[in-house]
């Protein structure tokens, strides 16, 4: 009998999750002028490792976004020993502008409370412990290590307050981990505000026609 070649499977590395690239709603345009097509994807009230905190009407996203949050919070919950994610606003049902946001328009932006802080407490308050910061670092690490088929991170940027970026830069310097933490540090994008939540922006699924990615990040840690 002739050998039939086995279909090639994507190899999943330890700590990697599977998320669907072509199911559900589709992101169109850019985060600051886009929309959502076939808007069928909304984050449920809760799941393993997360709770939805915003009004349901602001929790629509692209298929990849909703699938990704559910999968990554499940893995984080099983591996981190840290508090669940509090997920705030994503997008309106069909996308577009709303509330105070300039972005959040194409279903690829997600606001999440700093992990370990109830009720979206400020990450700059005096109550923050190194343990809380470690939980957030672990989550950023998990986010950035999830890849699209082009082998680049599915995460385009994680917007954090500039003081948070400086904290993690210093942490890496002190532990001599600037090289090991380079990819995560690179994706931490300092932006004023962002004291009560960080903002995760995903890259487009390769199957979303007409979805535009944000500008690529510079090389280096940005520390
Ligand atoms: Zn945001």
Structure overview:
- There is one protein chain.
- This protein has helices spanning 63-80, 130-144, 162-174, 182-187; strands spanning 26-28, 35-37, 46-47, 50-52, 85-87, 109-112, 155-160, 188-190, 198-202.
- It is an alpha/beta fold and 223 residues long.
- It has one domain (29-202): Muramoyl-pentapeptide Carboxypeptidase, domain 2, CATH 3.30.1380.10.
Q: List the domain count as a whole number.
A: 1
The coarse silhouette is globular
- In the CATH hierarchy, the third-tier topology is known as Muramoyl-pentapeptide Carboxypeptidase, domain 2
Q: What is the alpha-carbon Rg in Å? A: 18 Å
CATH architecture: 2-Layer Sandwich
Strand order of the largest sheet: 6-9-7-8
SSE run: EEEEHEEHEHHEE
Low-confidence stretches: none
Number of strands: 9
Main sheet properties: 4 strands, mixed
| Hetero compounds | zinc ion
Number of helical elements:
4
**CATH class assignment:** Alpha Beta
Helix/strand/pairing class, anyone? alpha/beta
Give a quick precis of the structure.
This protein has 223 residues and is an alpha/beta fold. Helices cover 23% and strands 14% of the residues. It is globular.
């Amino acid at each position: 009998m002739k050998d039939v070649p086995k279909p090639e499977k994507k190899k999943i590395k330890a700590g990697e999750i599977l998320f669907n690239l072509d199911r559900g709603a589709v992101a169109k345009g850019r985060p600051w002028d886009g929309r959502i097509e076939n808007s069928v994807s909304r984050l449920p009230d809760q799941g393993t490792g997360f709770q939805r905190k915003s009004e349901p009407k602001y929790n629509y996203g692209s298929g990849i976004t909703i699938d990704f949050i559910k999968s990554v919070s499940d893995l984080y919950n099983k591996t981190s020993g840290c508090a669940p994610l509090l997920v705030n606003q994503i997008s309106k049902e069909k996308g577009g502008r709303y509330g105070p946001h300039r972005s959040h328009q194409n279903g690829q932006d997600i606001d999440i409370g700093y992990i370990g802080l109830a009720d979206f407490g400020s990450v700059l308050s005096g109550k923050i412990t190194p343990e809380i910061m470690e939980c957030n670092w672990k989550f950023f690490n998990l986010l950035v290590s999830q890849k699209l088929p082009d082998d680049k991170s599915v995460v385009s940027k994680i917007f954090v307050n500039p003081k948070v970026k400086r904290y993690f830069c210093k942490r890496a310097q002190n532990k001599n981990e600037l090289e090991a933490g380079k990819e995560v540090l690179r994706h931490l994008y300092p932006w004023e505000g962002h004291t009560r939540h960080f903002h995760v922006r995903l890259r487009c699924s390769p199957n979303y026609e007409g979805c535009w990615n944000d500008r690529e990040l510079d090389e280096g840690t940005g520390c």
